[in-house]
Amino acid sequence: MIQDIVCGIYLITTEGCKVSEVNDKKYYFCCDTCKAEFDNYTEKYVEDFESAKEINISQQKIEWERDPVCGERINISDAKGITLYKDSRYYFCCKICKKHLMQICPLMQIKIKDFTTREIQMILLK
Description:
- It is a single chain.
- The model has no long low-confidence stretch (mean pLDDT 76).
- The protein is of the alpha+beta class.
- It is elongated, with a radius of gyration of 16 Å.
- A hairpin with a 6-residue loop joins strand 5 (64-66) and strand 6 (73-75).
- The strands form 4 sheets. A 3-stranded antiparallel sheet has the order 8-7-9.
- The protein has 5 helices and 9 strands.
């Protein structure tokens, strides 16, 4: 699975994705904003990405969920937002998806518990 190294979401397909190429290696992005950020700070992102690959993730338990808005499959530890509704947790790849859900589901706004960054960290540590 390919990850947008700027925002961290995992891309289901590369079709329609934005692309930058550095040293004969292609990097895929979910949107123009992420691609522009990468293009402006290429060295930083490539260096961070390569050093992160060196970490042995085979020893880590990775839990996956789907963003209810865009459908992207995301590692819950990389979630950019979590919302609780009727005892279910919803994980979001970005703040835009979370905001979109709040706009299209006005009834949920009354019953939703939005988590702070600290609360998200505590949930993920359990």
